[in-house]
Amino acid sequence: MPSTFIKTFDTPAYKGTITIPLGLYINGEFVDPVEGGTIDVVNPATGKVVTSIAAGTKADIDIAAQAAKKAYKTSWGLKVPGAQRGKLMSKLAVLMEEHIAEFAALDALANGKAYNTAYGRDNKGAIAVMQYYAGWADKINGKTIETNENKLAYTRHEPIGVVGQIIPWNVPMFSLSLKIAPALATGNTIILKPSELTPLSALLFCTLIEEAGFPPGVINIVNGYGPTAGQAISEHPLIEKVAFTGSTLTGRKIMEAAAKSNLKPVTLELGGKSPNIIFDDADLEQAVKWAIHGIYFNHGQNCSAGSRIFVQQSIYDKFLDQFTEQARAIKVGDPFSPDTYQGPQVSKTQFERIMGYITSGKNDGATVHLGGKQIGQEGYFIEPTIFTECQPDMKIVREEIFGPVACVMKFETEDEVVEQANDTSYGLAASVFTKDIDRAIRVAHALEAGTAWINCANQTEISMPFGGFKQSGIGRELSEYALENYTNVKAVHVNIGIRL
Predict the structure, then answer these.
(1) DSSP string across 70-117
(2) By the 8 A CB rule, do 318 and 419 touch?
(3) Counting C-beta atoms within 10 Å of the first and last residue's C-beta, which end of the chain has fewer, N or C?
(4) Given 206, 303, 390, 407, which residue is catalytic?
(5) In the predicted model, is pLDDT for residue 178 greater than 90?
(6) Tens digit of pLDDT for each residue in 34-93?
(7) Exposed/middle/buried for 249, CB within 10 Å: 0-12, 13-18, 19+?
(8) Could you tell me the CA-to-CA distances from 400 to 24, 166, 301, 348 in Å, in that order?
(9) pTM of the entire structure?
(10) Pick from 243, 142, 155, 140: which is nearest to 186 by CA?
(11) Contacts of 17 (CB under 8 A, 6+ apart)
């Protein structure tokens, strides 16, 4: 019988007691893992263990796959009309909203992000995504295609079947909803592995699935490590599709495992090193504010973070002064403090990784203009950091840091900055700041990125697709485009008059 986590919060942001089972959620119930392992969950604000969750392995993924396959064949998929799927998803969204404060508290505890961000952005977004795709569930349509008078030809968009999903730790509940919602809407059954660093909100989510009315086996959530549970999802023969969000390195491994097993299709939302281009005619005050949000939002732990900031030479000094002033004013501290903007980095490993990049920047000759140090002795807090005098071949310019570290660089001409911005293996997102609409659109079109923001940054919309060019991924999430990830297109030819 799985153990239970009970946590009483008495903080300025949230007060209450939360109780969640710590087992694996398979076939509609919480169970112990076959091999009996556990994973410690650490509060990054203190570095101390808060609880231990069940750790699934290949054997548990196999049990979940069998349950998901049975559910797909008997109680979900094409057995359940889209309108009914949409009703269950809408009910799930309502339940998520009823528990939004608890979700936010658990994400702030395990991830370290500010409670207000977890509540107002991540979890409100997760609910909105579930509601959005609930509306799509009865609109999965094919086409009737004109061929000739003796044939009826049409297409069906059918669910794939059992899909595997692996989500990251930076936006736990938003990532969960981003994966689960389009898969449910299109009629698939799911095996999802949350990040082992931030599993608590996913476990709370599991307690709502049966209440919402989903049959057992439709949604299975198996915590575990990437090399064990994640690998098993990628290579399991009953899992017919895998979706992953995380690092490009891990994405390669998942793609390889998927290819070597049953050649399952993959969608990958991977890393980024997004450019933020600020021309000399931009609204400087707004450009600075957006640049702050672009890099320091979510502690810099954001795949689309605008970490390479290119500023036209004539306004470089003014921009740097204002950008430095606002970065220095960022409130770093307790995630449950109402005025905290930046909490700790998610883990000791991530903290050390970021500090390693800061050391690399110094050794390569870049100037630490601001920050660059740990804050305090407890937890994994890092000062908002600005590097200047950066060169294109430096690691801090070329590699994804995934932390509160900005590289601010000068440029002179439009052609020069477009070339510099595109000089990267990534292509997730980019921002352009200018009052010249012709230039704004011209540069946005020239940038090799899946998303281009003009006079803003980190502004996704549920109805707009999100995904990358180059090594930033394969496929698109959000919007109608995400539905394509979870359907097979079948062509049906009906002979109504052809004679041999």
Answers:
(1) HHHHHTSGGGS-HHHHHHHHHHHHHHHHHTHHHHHHHHHHHH---HHH
(2) no
(3) C
(4) 303
(5) yes
(6) 999 999 999 999 999 999 999 999 999 999 999 999 999 999 999 999 999 999 999 999
(7) exposed
(8) 32, 20, 10, 17
(9) 0.96
(10) 140
(11) 6, 7, 8, 9
Q: Which two tokens stand for residue 380?
A: 């994994």
Measure Cα distances from 177 to 8, 157, 186, 192 in Å: 26, 22, 14, 11
Report residue 35 as tokens: 């091999």
Hey, what are 496's tokens? 């109504």
**Residue 58, token pair as written in the block:** 């290949």
129 phi, psi to nearest 5 deg: -65, -45
Give the mean pLDDT of 178-188.
Answer: 98
Distance CA 205, CA 354 (A): 31
Written as six digits, the tokens of 452 are 């281009």
Instruction: For residues 63 and 67, give the distance between their C-alpha atoms in angstroms, rounded to a whole number.
Output: 6
Question: Tokens standing for 192?
Answer: 């999802």
Active-site choice (196, 240, 269, 400) = 269
Task: Based on the residue annotation, tell me whether 269 is a catalytic residue of this protein.
Answer: yes
Nearest-angstrom CA–CA distance, 386 and 366:
10
Dihedral over alpha carbons 136, 138, 140, 142 (to 10 degrees): -150
Joined tokens for residue 223:
């915590």
Q: What 3-state DSSP class applies to 486?
A: helix
Say how far apart CA 481 and CA 477 lie, in whole Å: 7
Tokens of 157: 């968009």
Is 211 assigned a catalytic role? no
Whether 412 contacts 313, CB under 8 Å? yes
Across the beta sheet with 487-495, what order do the strands follow? 144-145, 151-159, 487-495
Per the DSSP assignment, residues forming a β-bridge with 367 are 388
Mean pLDDT, the chain, whole residue set: 97
- Per the CB < 8 A criterion, the answer to whether 218 and 68 are in contact is yes
Distance of alpha carbon 102 from alpha carbon 186, whole angstroms = 29
The count of other CB atoms within 10 Å of the CB of residue 123 is 27
Q: Are 373 and 404 a contacting pair, CB within 8 Å? A: no
Give the other-Cβ count within 10 Å of 500's Cβ: 3
* Cα–Cα dist 430/310, whole Å: 11
